[in-house]
């Protein structure tokens, strides 16, 4: 019995060691997608002022090592200064105020299948009847594996 | 030799001194025949006389009346013996253990070691000495020194148990026989158990559903009832703790006393701590930068106030104890990024490092439990009754999100959970070969919710389990344990609708404003059979164990019926009503070789999950938040622990241990990925050196713990890889003989993270937002006993 137990034990040790080194060849996706507005057509740029009633093309470049999946665009107010963007430079914020009829835009989209590079382009008209002031514009993108990247930009909506 | 080790006998030598008068005195000592170590607390009783053996095993009775003809010597774990005394003759008695008493009632150290050797389950017994020597900020941090045990930490004062890489509801925490029911599925809170006053913990590293039902799929942290105080005794202690890193001040005082049959114990603990310090001045998370004021991880201060009182009765046939306890804590969470949402705030977090601002939580855990053991001779009946009320409130700054307008108050989530438990079991012995235990566990719980953030629905749950197992003693060196269990459970979830309207697109492209339904009224039932079979073999100084177990875990309400934004994690979590209860098979091996100056242990395991429940980040969005959906996959895991220690060199003890787990999902959407929060390969080297006594310092010792942890490259979305690290902890312990008539004061000086190393713990909750572990910490602890 002792011999058998020892055998079992060494067998499991062997399995541990081999299993540690045997999965380098698996085709696992360990990379997040990327998202960028740092190019000429990238929109909106930090601190940009959007005018009510105007239509804008929101553009960002997304890439992934394997396959992109979905993206979302979210515009919400920052009247309470609840957060700041992750871009370089700081925009001047207006005084804190209560929201009355803030602009809320939340849409999800899918990227054409098997794309590893894609330019987001969403045409959006800023409604006339919403509160002006500080807003956030947030992009996020996922790949097929479920990795996500986000970016957020401080903007303003003016009359 | 081995037979001696296994059978614990009581050896008593009673020397009676002849006296010419009507009365006489006797003097004797009580020793364990096997170890020849003195037994403290043996009761010596007779007509109108009573004595207790001291820590050196001695007792002395004066003025015994001449007509007294016999005394009874008893101690828990040993069978009592009646000793006839005459005035002028020495008496020698050899006592045999009572195996049934030993298996069920005894909680003494020696018998536990024996029990642990015989049972094929892979267990680890944690003693009070270990707890006192290694005490950290939370119970699980203290236990994480044990190979195979790690923690998920949330700041400095809270942590959750992880056994071999699995945590949350996959580890059952059992206190005094009752399963501890808090909101253990949640990410960001700890155990809600006072770690002061615990004397004995048994850790089962492996499937233990057989004994504990659902949730004991990866292991059990079993906090065992404390020893019954000695007869006619009164003991107390005050523990004072101070820490430099988070300016912690803790005080805990406990007393325990017993007349003859009645006893009580009580304890009060209060801890108050400030923000903890990390060895960095700024934290980079994604593209955000958070500057830290004075290295303080802002708003991680907290406080904790605990109280417990118990009253008990013990005699030869019955032992019963009823415990009332309450644990109350308020803990702040790192303000800028609680979970994954980045926020700025008007709150001046840095004005004080002791205040607890938003976000924070308030937890209260109230518990009543009764443990009763009745010894009818052949049968030992055991009952555990429990009531627990767990209330947790999470407060955050009210912030509008999506279609949700600004909430009216800070009360984001409130969970109130009531759990009623009843366990009964009967242990009996057949032919001195079969130790049979038959039992039943019943549990009812209901969980209500409140606050403006919805995550899990209200639910009620009833579970019932019956089990039986037999530990068969083939001979003194071979034991077999076989058992089976059947569980049945019903879970009822309640409907929930948002308190605000959301804009929803209809099929005809119009939009409407609706109160979205997040959960439905639903009744689900579960059945499961679990089983365990194992063999243990003791050969000289080596113990071999093989155990095969099947365990299960009932799916939880959040896994089945979540449907909401988790603001803390900034994601949308979706349950799945089709999830089956998790079932896992595990093969355990354990080889332990212990000699006087040397010990070596190795415990590999192999584990297969048929359907591991996993919160899978999908590639889809709901209202621009990434959807995480509960799914199931097959999982293969293998790993183990290794430990060795030696005391070959005088006064120097050296120990080394290592732990490793390899996990793979072998099916499903994350095939080939590991499991979340997988602990990396880690080793711990410890050295402890006893110094000579000097001035008031008795048995002083210095020790050093050096932990080497490898990088964790094995990750699953949304985790990130974590670099390896080396960290050194030092401590000095000693007894101080300050008070002449009292036991010595225990003093402990600890220096954690000696070099103020900046490192990341892969299994820390704050790892996700790139917060390093706590920096250097000096702690001083004094334990002052009184009588």
Automatic annotation (TrEMBL), chain A:
InterPro entries: DUF4625
Keywords: Signal
UniProt source species: Cellulophaga fucicola
The protein's name: DUF4625 domain-containing protein
Stored Gene3D superfamilies: 2.60.40.4140
Pfam families: DUF4625 (PF15418)
Entry-linked PROSITE patterns: PROKAR_LIPOPROTEIN
Signal peptide, first to last residue: 1-22
From TrEMBL, chain B:
Domain TonB-dependent receptor-like beta-barrel residues, every copy: 457-754
GO biological process, one term: siderophore transmembrane transport
Domain named TonB-dependent receptor plug: residues: 116-220
Compartment annotation: Cell outer membrane
Signal sequence interval, chain numbering: 1-20
Record family assignment: Belongs to the TonB-dependent receptor family.
Protein name: Iron complex outermembrane recepter protein
Source organism (scientific name): Cellulophaga fucicola
């Amino acid at each position: 019995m002792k011999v058998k137990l020892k055998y079992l034990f060494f067998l499991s040790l062997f399995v541990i060691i081999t299993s540690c080194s045997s999965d380098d060849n698996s085709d696992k996706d360990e990379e997040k997608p990327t998202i960028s507005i740092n190019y000429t057509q990238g929109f909106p740029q930090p601190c940009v002022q959007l005018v009510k009633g105007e239509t804008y093309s929101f553009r960002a470049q997304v890439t992934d090592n394997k396959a992109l999946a979905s993206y979302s665009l979210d515009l919400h107010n920052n009247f309470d200064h609840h957060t700041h963007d992750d871009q370089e430079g700081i925009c001047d914020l207006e005084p804190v105020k209560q929201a009355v009829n803030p602009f809320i835009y939340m849409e999800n989209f899918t990227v054409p299948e098997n794309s590893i590079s894609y330019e987001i382009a969403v045409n959006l008209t800023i409604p006339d009847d919403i509160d002006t002031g500080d807003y956030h514009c947030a992009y996020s993108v996922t790949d097929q594996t479920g990795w996500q990247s986000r970016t957020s930009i401080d903007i303003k909506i003016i009359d | 030799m081995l037979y001696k080790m296994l059978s614990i006998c009581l050896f008593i030598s009673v020397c009676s001194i002849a006296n010419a008068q009507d009365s006489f005195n006797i003097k004797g000592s009580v020793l364990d025949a096997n170890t020849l170590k003195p037994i403290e607390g043996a009761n010596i009783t007779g007509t109108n006389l009573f004595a207790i053996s001291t820590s050196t095993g001695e007792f002395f009775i004066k003025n015994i009346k001449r007509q007294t003809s016999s005394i009874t010597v008893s101690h828990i774990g040993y069978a009592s013996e009646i000793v006839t005394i005459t005035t002028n003759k020495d008496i020698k008695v050899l006592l045999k253990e009572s195996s049934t008493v030993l298996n069920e009632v005894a909680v003494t150290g020696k018998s536990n070691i024996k029990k642990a050797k015989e049972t094929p389950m892979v267990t680890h017994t944690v003693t009070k000495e270990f707890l006192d020597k290694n005490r950290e900020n939370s119970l699980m941090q203290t236990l994480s020194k044990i190979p195979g045990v790690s923690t998920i930490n949330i700041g400095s004062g809270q942590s959750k148990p992880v056994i071999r890489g699995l945590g949350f509801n996959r580890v059952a925490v059992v206190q005094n026989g009752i399963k501890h029911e808090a909101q253990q599925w949640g990410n960001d809170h700890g155990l809600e158990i006072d770690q002061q006053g615990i004397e004995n913990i048994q850790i089962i590293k492996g499937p233990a559903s057989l004994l504990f039902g659902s949730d004991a799929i990866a292991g059990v942290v079993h906090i065992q009832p404390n020893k019954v105080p000695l007869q006619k005794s009164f003991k107390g202690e005050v523990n004072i703790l101070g820490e430099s890193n988070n300016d912690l001040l803790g005080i805990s005082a406990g007393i325990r006393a017993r007349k003859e049959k009645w006893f009580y114990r009580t304890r009060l603990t209060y801890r108050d701590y400030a923000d903890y310090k990390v060895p960095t001045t700024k934290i980079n998370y994604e593209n955000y930068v958070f500057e830290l004021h004075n290295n303080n991880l802002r708003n991680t201060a907290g406080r904790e106030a605990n109280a417990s009182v118990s009253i008990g009765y013990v005699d030869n046939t019955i032992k019963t104890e009823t415990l009332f306890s309450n644990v109350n804590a308020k803990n702040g969470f790192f303000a800028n990024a609680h979970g994954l949402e980045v926020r700025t705030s008007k709150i001046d977090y840095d004005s004080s490092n002791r205040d607890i601002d938003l976000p924070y939580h308030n937890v209260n855990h109230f518990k009543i439990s009764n443990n009763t053991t009745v010894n009818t001779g052949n049968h030992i009946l055991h009952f555990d009754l429990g009531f627990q009320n767990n209330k947790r409130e999470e407060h955050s700054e009210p912030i509008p999100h999506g279609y949700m307008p600004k909430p009216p108050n800070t009360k984001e989530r409130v969970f109130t959970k009531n759990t009623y438990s009843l366990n009964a079991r009967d242990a009996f012995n057949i032919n001195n070969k079969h130790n049979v235990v038959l039992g039943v566990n019943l549990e009812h719980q209901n969980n209500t919710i409140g606050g403006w953030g919805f995550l899990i629905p209200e639910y009620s749950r009833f579970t019932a389990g019956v089990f039986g197992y037999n530990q068969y003693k083939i001979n003194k060196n071979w034991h077999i344990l076989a058992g089976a269990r059947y569980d049945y459970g019903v879970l009822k979830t309640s409907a929930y609708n948002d308190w605000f309207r959301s804009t929803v697109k209809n099929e005809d492209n119009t939009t409407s404003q609706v109160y979205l339904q997040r959960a439905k009224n639903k009744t689900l039932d579960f059945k499961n059979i679990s089983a365990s079979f194992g063999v243990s073999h003791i050969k000289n100084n080596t113990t071999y164990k093989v155990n095969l177990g099947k365990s299960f875990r009932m799916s939880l309400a959040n896994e089945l019926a979540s449907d909401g934004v988790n603001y803390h994690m900034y994601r949308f979590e979706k349950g799945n009503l089709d999830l089956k209860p998790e079932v896992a098979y595990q093969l355990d091996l354990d080889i332990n070789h212990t000699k006087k100056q040397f010990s070596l242990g190795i415990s590999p395991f192999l584990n297969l999950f048929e359907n591991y429940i996993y919160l899978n980040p999908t590639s889809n969005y709901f209202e621009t938040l990434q959807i995480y959906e509960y799914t199931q996959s097959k999982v293969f895991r293998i790993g183990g622990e290794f430990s060795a220690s030696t005391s070959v060199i005088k006064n120097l003890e050296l120990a080394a241990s290592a732990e490793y787990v390899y996990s793979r999902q072998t099916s499903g959407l994350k095939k080939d990925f590991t499991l979340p929060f997988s602990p990396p390969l880690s080793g711990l080297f410890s050295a402890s050196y006893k110094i000579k006594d000097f001035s008031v310092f008795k048995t002083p010792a210095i020790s050093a713990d050096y932990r080497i942890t490898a990088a964790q490259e094995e990750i699953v979305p949304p985790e990130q890889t974590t670099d390896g690290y080396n960290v050194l902890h030092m401590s000095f312990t000693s007894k101080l003989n300050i008070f002449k008539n009292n036991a010595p004061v225990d003093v402990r000086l600890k220096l954690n993270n000696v070099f103020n190393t900046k490192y990341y713990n892969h299994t820390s909750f704050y790892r996700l937002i790139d917060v390093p572990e706590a920096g250097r910490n000096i702690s001083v602890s004094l334990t002052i006993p009184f009588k």
